[in-house]
């Protein structure tokens, strides 16, 4: 981005621009902001700000905030937002804007860490084991002068650096793409509490890449405490941490110890705050049993509205298992690309969790540029982007037809969420297959051209 | 060496993809042509279905009607009394007094609304009375509305309509079958505004500063249906016209129209849509429908033309939402409502007489009363809510409907045509070049005899193909970002910058009128609407200059009109496809205006000389002949909003300032989407088209260097 200047200045400018855009929208269109806070695309029962305010009110008045099936969010939000509620509303907005900038900063650090690891030790993160790469390189070079007439694969970049694209990824680009994403701005304006979850997840990735395993595990525990599903990110996080050291059982044990310890600490703190264990049933319980059937962009609500009660528990298990079942295979297959595994699992969460919103997609879109080296293998870019945009326009329109005009019904909105899910699935499939293709090309350079031709 | 099956598969795929890539423009033009031609099929008698009553509980024409001479006499008395009172206040007082005397719970509501944009204040008084049903629990209600003036033409008074409803009030009081409450409303001021204010208060909406209306205390339950009467002051009526379109494409449930059609037929009252008199019967019998017999052709032809006119008129009303009746505000509150407007009989002279001498041409209060009674007895049977029949339909005649499955394909085809055109640009940007012509349809040369030789030939072709195309693909994120940046900047300037400015203008202009030296606009002889239009054009010009400057100066090396073309087409396609589910007519209007010129926008046709092993491909480029681009530019200008406003004004005998401010008021008062769509999609898309036509060139030879693409 722009002329090379000091990274901090550059980030400062970006952050200032991001705050200005958000502030203009927040203070310029107050009615829009009020409307956004009630949009089900932006906030689910588990992340909605109006519900949070209700919970804070109950908590302040000395009631159990989890009474009355309104507040389903972690207990530790309560004192924080109790404090913010004392201050003018602009402070809450400022707090959310700062959260966005903090996330962008973590992304910046992630890119910097990735680049540092690539430039300092080009072979260490190389996805293919050393002998094979050497063989492939040798083969390529061998074919260059002699076999030109037979097939023209000689342009195959020989080294990792060349393969990763001649233009290195700029941290500012990634941060700018996150901050400038309209969905990020909308989520920020809607005051969805999902941003804390996002912050915990990117912090976990950052500290993993920087090999600070205690912090990484602690942030993972926070993420899991906030929304439970990120627990499945333990696999990729351990893989990243294991890249730099001998992965012994004792190391894994220590990691798990920190994770469980922090989780227990957070749980006990919540208990101390609320004075009962009711928060477990109201946060994780609701996320797992889908007891609140407010429509959202996910795939759960429609099924569980339609379902007969005696099938409910069975399908609940099937649906939730389906979300978690990807964790192990993705980690096993992409054990050489743990960051990709991390991204894919975030995508799986955004797709299959019980209460997703566009905020989950924002995280995936923010992590996506980290894999820019596989973009040239992507086949469905046009389709994915088109479907995604179309779904995000259709969803509010069908909601309008269903809820306000009455000329549509729930099926309309559900159809839009299916299109949204299809777009996400295409994105995930495209991402994984292009990584596999890239790996394959590096292993078997001679057949590369032929495979490209089959597109 | 190679797996035969995979090669064969690859060859097949490549052939299809190659053919698609080569002919994508023709494909998209074909889709557009089919879509446009399909529209002409819609009015065909064969293409539409006969309407049927979906909700059996309604049972039209089943109840005995006893509206008779006594009620007609009462209507004439009321009419005479109203005619004798010359000022509005005493007429309102008359109606209020009568409602109270008849045992209705009556109330008046005065309201006031200042529209800053047209700088006008409207005020009026609504009167309404509620008859609580003797055997029900005040949870459901039906409404009968008679405005004091015609909603579409404020110069025509509707005293006959008011008298008609008053006579019915008296009569309905005497009946004892009501299962729902009856609400009679006589909206004052501009009727649509009066009804809007009444509905807002009835549904408990807060009143914001420009709106002022008294709260309502006499209430009832959920309103399930509403009927509005607009009757000219004449001795006899020729036909009854239905007006049913709401804002944003909302329509009443088809069952409401169905019962009206069936009941008017029973009472021998001619029924039309929007007063379009048909030269052919609205319902053809089985023999007449037989298009194989050439005797029927003249009849079928006339039927086709009638249906075409009906569709055109009703869809124009639906698209703009501008020509509405008093029923339109109801739809926003999910109340099914229609306006029944009588057309005066050409032979009728003089004022209405209760007892005409000799046989009377046309119909009057007697038939209207029986129709209304019958419709209300039928609505009285309604369960819960109108939900059985269609909410989305087109009507070529009151007796025929076209369902959404049959009328949405043309619009979707046109959207698909735009998508194809966008895809063509994308493939071009994405680095695929026009494949060598030998590739697309050629087969292995005849000299190859064996199967193996043929495969080898194909493998060679594949290598030649992919070797040239693969390195040209934009293959990293930063590169694509560099390439896309200028285009995104242009889109942001147009769609967000210009769009927001235009959208905010109607609120800014009246305020700026207070800020600028007093009398400046007056001195220039500009009204608010004209100032608005002038500023609109000023901002458009300004944003054009910014974008042109950006393209010329800042991004000269990387500006690629193909990307702009692709994104503009995609946005347009998205808008058309999305609007089509809400307001089909508006989407169709959008598609008919833009699809053809936009898909004809030049794609810079980048051709690579066939590269050799040593030299990289050298692209050459052409943006189309200058004359052709000028023609397209003129076309784009012709569909720009100011020109359209003038054309529509000429066609509807209004001034364009009326239309223009009407559109703004529609948005501010009734939440119509036409103006935002114009600001955020239509106008910016036109500006992008202008930009593409003025700067179709790109310096593609610099792009690979700028992007760091491998040679």
TrEMBL record, chain A:
InterPro entries: PIG-U (IPR009600)
Transmembrane stretches, start-end: 12-29, 183-203, 215-239, 251-273, 279-302, 314-335, 341-368, 380-399, 411-429
Domain of life: Eukaryota
Membrane topology: Multi-pass membrane protein
Any Pfam family the entry gives: PIG-U
Primary location recorded for the protein, binned into one broad class: endoplasmic reticulum
Name this protein carries in UniProt: GPI transamidase subunit PIG-U
Species per Swiss-Prot/TrEMBL record: Dimargaris verticillata
From TrEMBL, chain B:
Keywords assigned by UniProt, alphabetized: Membrane, Transmembrane, Transmembrane helix
TM spans (from-to): 24-44, 407-429, 488-509, 529-551, 563-596, 673-695
Gene3D superfamilies cross-referenced by the UniProt entry: Zn peptidases (3.40.630.10)
Gene name for this UniProt entry: GAA1
Cross-referenced PANTHER family: GLYCOSYLPHOSPHATIDYLINOSITOL ANCHOR ATTACHMENT 1 PROTEIN
Organism: Dimargaris verticillata
Listed GO CC annotations: GPI-anchor transamidase complex
GO biological process, one term: attachment of GPI anchor to protein
Domain of life assignment: Eukaryota
Name assigned to this protein: Glycosyl phosphatidyl inositol protein transamidase complex subunit
